[in-house]
Amino acid sequence: MHEETTAGRREGVRGESFTLEDLPGAVTDPEICGAYAADASGLSRVPDAVVRPQSEDEVRELLRVCSARGIAVTPQGLRSSTTGASVPARGIVVSLERMARVLSIDPQRRVVVAEPGIVASEFKARVREAGLFYPVDPTSEAECTLGGTVACNASGSRTYRYGPTRGYVRALRVVLADGSVREVRRISSDKNSTGYAGLQNPVDIWIGSEGTLGVVTQVELDLLLLPPGVFGALAFFRDWRAAVGFVQAADASRRVSTASGKAGLRPRCLELFDHGSLDLVRPDAGGLRIPAAAGAAVFFEEEVSTEESLSAMERWYAAIEEAEGLADDTVVAQSEAEQAELKRLRHALPAGMNERGARAVSNGGRKVSTDFAVPLDKLPQMMEEAYTIVREIFGGFHVAYGHAGNGHPHFNLLAEDAAGLTKAREAARRMAERALDLGGTMAAEHGIGKVKSALYRRLYPVWLVEASLGIKRALDPQGILSPGNIFGEDEI
Amino acid sequence: MFCFCRRVWRAGRAYVEEGLLKIVVLVKLVPSSEARIRIAADGRSIDPADVELLASAYDEYAVEAALQLKEKFGGEVVAISAGPDKAAEMLRKSCLALGVDRAVLVRDPALDRTDTLGTARALAAACRRETPDLILCGKLAIDQENAAVGPQVAALLDLPHVSVVSNLEPSSESAFVVHREIEGGMEEIEVSLPAVLTANKGMNEPRYASLKGIMTAKKKPLDTVDLAALGLDAQAVAPKAILVSLKTPPVRADQGIIIQGESAAAKVAELVRLLFEEAKAL
Fold first, then answer.
1. Min Cα–Cα distance to chain B from A128, Å
2. Can you tell me the distance from the alpha carbon of B238 to that of B154, in angstroms, rounded to the nearest whole number?
3. Strand-strand pairing, B22-26 and B134-138
4. Which residues lie closer than 8 Å to B208 by C-beta, 6 or more apart?
5. pLDDT digits (tens, 9 = 90+) for B181-228
6. What DSSP state is assigned to residue A391?
7. What is the DSSP string of chain B?
8. How many Å apart are CA A453 and CA A374, to the nearest integer?
9. Per-residue model confidence as pLDDT tens digits over A78-120
């Protein structure tokens, strides 16, 4: 969109000449810009400049100037996206890292207002200090921002019970491409029959819009009461089939018990570790004894008071036995420290695979991960096919773990070199297509970003993608916001 | 491998039973190291509100060591704690649920304000009833860090003791070889049973409770005894050292500085100057 003309001088869309240094607050030091170039996808491009505003006014001013000059702007949180969504295809980066305050917590109404740049785990700790609970728990919560979780409608293990970010967003303040600001508030009446259902709540259009429709400057969220207590446990099984069978049984029990009010399993998460995942965490498991006979495991948590926890545990024990698990080996995290330790082990999986992937980069390899999800009744079939696809097309080291309760395991393929990478990507594409065939999605929580727009078109009919593009063009006619995210760069 | 033997009395006759090693573990209820500690209104105790209470971390190594010995050589593990009512829950969760066979809580109002020697007297009396081959506890409790109760119990029972043990292994039916980290080296000590050993970090990796362990823990014996039941009275545990008051350390002001400068090079120059001249780190 703009080419370098003379040294440091650039030409905007309207032909006027400017330097990036003219942008309010712009930093062009290549070393600093280099720190804003890459996310967890492996995609990378050094931005022409980085702006780190401290207020909404600074964001408005920046976008006014950028839209006047046609400079592309990609908003960034902490670049934990796995899809290249925070990597600038061109132009500059606006990092929200300096807008990281909690503005207010109202304990009576259980509402919090915060800026987007706050680290998600930090935000949750602040909410907790106020005696309240924000349940969304992306695995990367210590490395991502609240704004990032809104931008991709993040979820986590507890999404099984609590749903993704979307359900908690009451309102957003958004600076649009032209620098104008808009407060988008959820229409929260119980009933609403105004127009097309998918568009009845405009705030929903921004949640998960991956930086393509504006820069969020304030997030207003609903909070919950803290649960009366919680225990977490890791149950072991001979193989993934038994583990997934257990997940299905636990899910069925939860549905019956929720509907009937009768006693039953009430998991808030159901997370799978397959054989390779257990091997990966074994050396790091410390006092957590992973039995040699275990070929898979399921991590579950239930919110229950101390008084009722024993009867809940007895129900779980029976269910694990019923599913032919290694019931006697089931370990329980009783203290907060043990719960944190189990969570750390779970997080060590993607982190460990990322590290191994990073070591392969010099050979042209890297980690390729899937984000498909299928209805839970299709999960055994999907997993069976996925393992076959991985074995036949890729053939290298791989693990599968994750949100089995939501039919959403992450397959991680470790491509050791460029040839392996091609095969791994092909396998990932095939798995995503199978997920679509089985009534699922290929991007359950990480978004489309710059790597899945072709599959996006495969999932939705042309007229619907066109309608989405219509919204994009209405709000950002020049296409300066996060070019390349969701839609191909040339589509806008 | 060999078997531990032990003389047991049954119906007035002495028998030698093989594979019996009786271990007592002393465990203290303390606030979680993650807890935000506030001082209670009396100015000399910790406000228990919103504070997660757990077994002291070093005592957990002792429990794990006892369980591993039992798994290897057979025998019985008894956990004993002197503390408040809440310590009963801790004994179930952190001892019985892990595999400890039974537990004893010494609960007496006279213990609430006692010192380490008073606590040691109560625990020693409770140990005496058990006649263990081995008494294990943490090298210190992570709340007050006196590191006194273990050695005091040993002295009161007239038993040998080794503190800050990082590794232990039986060397015969009646002795253990233990390792003890010292400044710049490792001591190896052989100690005859019965003995008191206090556990250091790194001795083992304490296990998690199993679902089954938690379920069976509720059926295991947990006796609560007072001082009178142990043949002691309040006078026996009257403190010789009295805790006068507790204070939290003064809040330190944030001492970081942000280096300002025209360019990265100027900032680095300033940083280097500060490291040399102010911090004297280089």
1. 12
2. 19
3. parallel
4. A287, A288, A289, A331, A332, A333, A334, A338
5. 888 999 999 999 999 999 999 899 999 999 999 999 999 999 999 999
6. I
7. ----EEEEEETTEEEEEET--EEEEE--EEE-TTS---B-TTSSSB--TT--EEE-HHHHHHHHHHHHHHHHH--EEEEEEES-THHHHHHHHHTGGGT--EEEEE--GGGTT--HHHHHHHHHHHHHHH--SEEEEESS-TTT----HHHHHHHHHT--EEEEEEEEEEEETTEEEEEEEETTEEEEEEEESSEEEEEPTTS--PPPEEHHHHHHHTTS-EEEE-TGGGT--GGGG--SS------PPPPPPP---PPP-SSHHHHHHHHHHHHHHTS---
8. 19
9. 999 989 999 999 999 999 999 999 999 999 999 999 999 999 9
Q: Name residue A185's amino acid.
A: R
Q: What is the DSSP letter of A148?
A: H
Residue A404 and residue A409: Cα distance in Å, rounded? 5
Q: Does B209 touch chain A (CB under 8 A)?
A: yes
Cis peptide before B194 (omega within 30 of 0): yes
Q: Which amino acid is at A312?
A: A
- Taking the CA of residue B234 and the nearest CA in chain A, the distance in Å comes to 34
DSSP states of A207-239:
TT-TTSS-EEEEEEEE-EEPPS-EEEEEEEESS
CB < 8 Å from A in window 216-245 of B: 218
Please judge whether B211 and A335 are an interchain contact, meaning their C-beta atoms are less than 8 angstroms apart.
Answer: no
Alpha-helical regions (H) of A130-274: 146-151, 159-162, 202-206, 240-260
- Which residues touch B172 (CB under 8 Å, ≥6 apart)? B2
Cα distance between residue B79 and residue B103, in whole Å: 5
Of the candidates A73, A144, A85, A155, which has an alpha carbon nearest to the alpha carbon of residue A451?
A85
Flag whether residue A297 sits within 8 Å of chain B, measured between CB atoms. Answer: no
Across the interface, whether the CB atoms of B209 and A334 are under 8 A apart is answered yes
**ipTM surpasses 0.90:** no
A331·B209 Cβ contact <8 A: yes
Q: Where are the domains of chain B?
A: 22-237, 254-282
- For residues A267 and A303, the answer to whether their CB atoms sit within 8 Å is no
For residue B183, give both structure tokens.
């400044």
Tokens encoding B271? 């940083």
Q: What's the Cα-to-Cα distance from B110 to each of B88, B114, B126, B152, B157, rounded to whole Å? A: 18, 7, 16, 19, 21
Closest listed residue to residue A151, CA positions, set A213, A101, A71: A213
In this prediction, residue A405 has a pLDDT band, given cuts at 50, 70 and 90, of very high
Residues A123, A145: Cα–Cα separation, whole Å: 9
Whole-angstrom Cα distance, residue A197 to residue B165?
A: 68
Q: Say yes or no: B32 contacts chain A, CB-CB below 8 A.
A: yes
Report how far residue B74's alpha carbon sits from residue B116's, in angstroms, rounded to the nearest whole number.
32
**pLDDT one-digit tens code per residue, B24-76:** 999 999 999 888 888 999 888 888 887 889 999 999 999 999 999 999 888 89
Q: Does the pLDDT of residue A283 top 90, yes or no?
A: no
Q: Return the pLDDT at A9.
A: 45
Residues of A in contact with B64 (CB under 8 A): 287
Query: What domains are there in chain A, each with its CATH number?
Result: 20-96 (3.30.43.10), 102-189+198-225 (3.30.465.10), 230-351 (3.30.70.2190), 356-447 (3.30.70.2740)
For the domain B22-237, what is the CATH code?
3.40.50.620
Helix (H) or strand (E) holding A308: helix A306-322
Please tell me whether residue A145 adopts helix, strand or coil conformation. Answer: strand
Please give the Cα distance from A365 to A358 (Å, whole number).
Answer: 8
β-partners of residue B195 are B134
Nearest to A142 by CA among A127, A165, A163, A125: A125
Which residues on adjacent β-strands are paired with residue A106?
Answer: A111
Does the structure show a pLDDT above 60 at A8? no
What whole-number distance in Å separates Cα of residue B172 and Cα of residue B174? 5
DSSP readout, A405-442? GGTEEEEEEEEEEHHHHHHHHHHHHHHHHHHHHTT-BS
